[in-house]
Amino acid sequence: MSEQLRPAQVDIDALLDDPNTHIVVCCGSGGVGKTTTAAALAVRAAERGRKTVVLTIDPAKRLAQALGLRELSNQPKQVVAEGFEPTGDLNAMMLDMRRTFDDMVLAHAGQDRAEQILNNHFYQTISTSFSGTQEYMAMEKLGQLSASGAWDLIVVDTPPSRSALDFLDAPQRLSTVLDGRLIKMLSSPARAGGKGLRKLVGAGFGIFAKAVSTIIGGQLLTDAAAFVQAFDSTFGGFRERADQTYRLLRSPGTAFLVVATPEPDALREAAYFVERLAGEHMPLVGLVANRTHPVLAALSGARAATTAEEMEQAGSAPLAAAVLRVHGDRVAVAEREKRLLARFTRAHPEVSLVGVPALPSDVHDLAGLREIGRRLAGE
């Protein structure tokens, strides 16, 4: 990568040590190492003295395994392990979107009304399978953690969504549905003194009913109306809550790290995310180029291949020839990765970068997370 294309380097330790940094959001497409990156950042922050909680949205339980925990719950759990004595504090949790939704109901509704909502079929549908619910509840949980004031730093492992739009749009999309015109139409029969829904909506009833049926997954419209009537007077603030969290994400105390591997698809997704974050004026810190394969030896790939071929033809030093072949292949991979990252940098010269060399094996414990943290910090 030429000097004019070389991006600024992300200073991870400066980011984690900054007392003004309260939230770090790791985002990107699936399979690029977001969960591991988030956990490694949290471990390093705790060891550098910050009271940290890492929130994962990944149901695969990889974070719990890497932290040496049997399981994670919807509430922060302190990480205690032999040989792990951070000067700060490390806690971890995994989002349970149904439990988070239930907790919202219990916190904001009276006991009778809460029971009515929790037992409603429409509520049971949207709290587990409505498009965007997971992302909305991730933002709700983030808002709760931030509002508690209990943490110096919150590290968020975002949902493994293929579309960069989902994570940013879901809170607005769900709150729009629950606060918007559709909900007002559902609740309007009761407000209209018992007039029938068909009469109220008139000629547009067919389109309206189709839209509602799609949302509630075939549940009766009366279930939806009953839910709304119980929900409306208690909660009407879904949009307000989503807006609060949206403002939190845009605040100077939040830092977004886009995680990608040096592969075409992952970098295309990362570029899309970078552009979307810029469009939303979100505080992007930079790109984590994960699982890179740098080559430190001065021997070029072409020279290694030529020398290996000469040795093979001469029938001498077969082991050395094999090593040279491996080196040549490694150089080819490194050069390909450099070209891909250079292409990304040309398109986004303002984006800082930190490369994280791949480990020889998967991360499955705190030692592995520490090593990832060191590599993130450039050590």
TrEMBL record:
GO molecular-function term, one example from the UniProt record: ATP hydrolysis activity
Coiled coil: none
Domain ArsA/GET3 Anion-transporting ATPase-like: residue ranges: 22-291
Signal peptide per UniProt: none
Any single Pfam family the record assigns to this protein: ArsA_ATPase
Alphabetical list of InterPro entries matching this protein: ArsA/GET3_ATPase-like, ATPase_ArsA/GET3, P-loop_NTPase
PANTHER family: ANION TRANSPORTER ATPASE-RELATED, ARSENICAL PUMP-DRIVING ATPASE ARSENITE-TRANSLOCATING ATPASE
Protein name: Anion-transporting ArsA/GET3 family ATPase
Species per Swiss-Prot/TrEMBL record: Saccharopolyspora phatthalungensis
